[in-house]
Amino acid sequence: MSVNAHSLSQPKQNSGFFSWLWEWLSTVDHKKIAILYLFGGGLFFLIGGIEAMLIRIQLAVPENTFLVGHNYNEVITMHGTTMIFLAAMPFIFALMNAVIPLQIGARDVAFPFVNALGFWLFFMGGIILNLSWFLGGAPAGGWTAYAPLSSEFLGNGMDFYVLGLQVAGAGTLMGAINFLVTIVNMRAPGMTFMRLPLFTWTVFITAVLILFAFPALTVGLFLIFFDRLFDANFFNEANGGNSIIWEHIFWIFGHPEVYILILPAFGVISEVIATFSKKRLFGYSSMVFATILIGFLAFMVWVHHMFTVGLGPSANTIFAIATMAIAVPTGIKIFNWIFTLWGGQITFNTANLYAVGFIPTFVMGGVTGVMLAVPTADFQYHDSYFVVAHFHYVIVGGLIFGLFSGFYYWWPKMFGRHLNETLGKINFWLFFIGFHLTFFFQHFLGLMGMPRRYFTYLKGEGFDAFNMVSTIGAFLMFFAVIVMLINIAYSAVKGEKAKGDAWEQGRTLEWSIASPPPEYNFAQTPLVKGIDAFWKEKMDGKDKMTAAEPVGDIHMPSSSIVPFLMSISLTIASLGFIFSAHDGVRKPALFVAGAGVVLFFLCMLARSIKDDPGFHIHKEEVIETEKGVR
Amino acid sequence: MKKWRLSLRLFPLFAIALLLSGCGKEGLSTLIPMGTVAKEQADLMLFSLLIMVLVMVVVIVLFTYAIIKFRKKRGQEDFIPKQVEGNAKLELLWTIIPIILLIILAVPTISKTFAHSDTHVAKGDDVIKVKVTGHQYWWEFEYPDQKIKTAQDLVIPTGKKVVVELTSKDVIHAFWVPALAGKIDANPGQTTSLWLDADKEGTYKGRCAELCGSSHALMYFNVKAVSPDEFKQWSKDMKDGPSAPTTASAKKGEQIFKNNCMSCHAVGEKGGQTAPNLSNFADRENIAGFKEHNKKNLKAWIKNPGKIKPGAEMPSFEDELSDDQINALADYLFSLSVKK
Known about the structure:
Chain B: It is a multi-pass membrane protein. Chain A is mainly α.
């Protein structure tokens, strides 16, 4: 794939494995970073998927002994943490990087260096977390890591959780700030806010949510970090701490996190459905308004994760009403999508199958969400399989359907080759059927009294049949992912070459340039004349955008290895802190941690002192490249 | 509540409710409620479900019609659909109707949430108070008015309001008896509360519902509902303590118990408080909360508790006590009954 991705190589490149490796380690090009996010996230997605399969194998039959006790808790913790932080988030960042600069007519993101740093921090954070498997055991406190279980009762694995997420979270926060600035500052002439494609809008709101939500996680992780490594007592009741504080901090981050995940999926669905219905998005303004409202309400509802904590009926009902209110803007979106389909001319390729399959699936997850908002009924649902079913409907049936739709849709733009449609459809149907088999019946398991995070259930509790069905469904999903991997490999070798307007009915700016785009994206910055800018030009009988500037030299940022080195130094620091929990090596480990931090600051210093003017791609070269691509 | 039940009956979709109530095992399922709180919760669950099914049906019908009617057909490749911007009336419609539906749902939500959280006990109220403490991985039950302590099996009288006050000795647990009432967390250093009652005599399954460590999945308990008279008798008997062992083996077992177990376990008032009180051990429903109540399982437990409940605090006595000693200990424990 890399062959396609850098058809336009920078000067001074040698061939060979090491220069190839160097190029990827030091790239600051948003299109390459997108690919890094995609495969980095993909790696963790597979690991998280294998963990899911282990869970389902253990629960297939009652009183199974395949994976029990502490080991089971490790696997569920790592499954949740991996899927949320190390698979879903990077997948979203992959699409953001691949698409946002192209959709707004920009040549790169606002801070290419920070972009690379964001990726490497995420990736090394994931590595730190997963190293726990080999260095004394994984975290086992659930992805929510409730104190005091996480702060006092569990072993070294929790330190990997704390520091791995701290490093990965810093990367996410940087990435979000970068995209905020990019979307605010780097829009092409004429691309007003109310002409932004809806995917860009949702990413914008998601970035705002990350900006306000992730610092809460950072603070919470620091508190646990100090509790665990330096005997602070933030969550220790016996010494005047309060364990409920962690729950508040975690969910003040955790609830917006759910919307951070789902909003970009809403964006993808809006793009894909509009494109393959050959219609503009129905109710664009209300879609934008609904997105903003959902983003705002995201911060108002965290207590609905804590109804059973015992905060009292007043707090519970206030947050219940706020939670129910979210159903209104979400409902607006659902109906707008249906009415985008209405009266259109719908093509059912894999991208659109995922988008269309998303609608009823996500509505299922949404309505159970409203049911969960009723506090006294939630006393029954809470921490039961009903909740497990609900959030998998929202996160798999919502987010993952959206992401897969986006992958199939933008794959030709990212790699210059289409994914195979036949394999794609097999992939979709296996995944769709497998998903519903796995999770639909878990609603009933929960109502029948099966709590979540149970490594087993007893014979005679009546949970056998639904659990077996659920495991069978999980295997179907597993096969679906294997088919997708085959599809990716097939496409890399034999995939149909993609045109610039790969689907021939593209509406937004990214389809007006070559697939994959040249390093500088737009030879001339486009002039945007309305919503769905490229569609508008095509309807006027043109085949490319009106330019806003003459062809000229294009300034590009130079690549840099510093982001990678900075991430390595934080990894060293983290591992130092993690091992400082072992009594015997406390001092040397703290010394290593200090060395890592010093190294990190040295990298920052080097970056600040060295003047980096970037480089230019000359006008002649641009003209030459543009000739070849159409 | 009568009004809501009435409107439920009028709903043609009531069939779903019937379908659901066939779900699960009696004494374990939220869908076969056996107490006031669980019943009202189940009603509310079904009521919200019916509204949601209504919404789903509307969405699915529109959605299915759209994807069948407007799919691309052969021979119209050049067709460009009308680029509709929106429709203010329609958009208002699907904003206002959900708001109305949510208001309808919000009314019983608020009233029932307050009702179910009301655990205030005024002087002279005829309620049973129980202090519940969660431990990794067992439950301690104390009746402050009756001055009784027991573990694992919570005995309550039928038809009476039972106010449960929760706390934890170590990590966060959650107290859940699906057939009687929803769960509330047991937080270390704090107290929370809930109330429940049981209509019928019987045994209801309880479980921990907040991840609390290795054996979270095995932290079961039982709620035994007995008639009010029986409860009165039981609490009196509990205060008197278990009858003394009669057989030689059990007497030998008592001595072994005193030497090995009493630093943690208590029988009657005597003994440690860090492990379950065993005063009425022979009357329990299960060994370790979930195994069948017989001597074989008890001996296996004493030999190696960690094998049955991973991470259990109790040490293994396999190497400490001989098989004979363990047999005697089991005989003693099975003599600990308050039933006359």
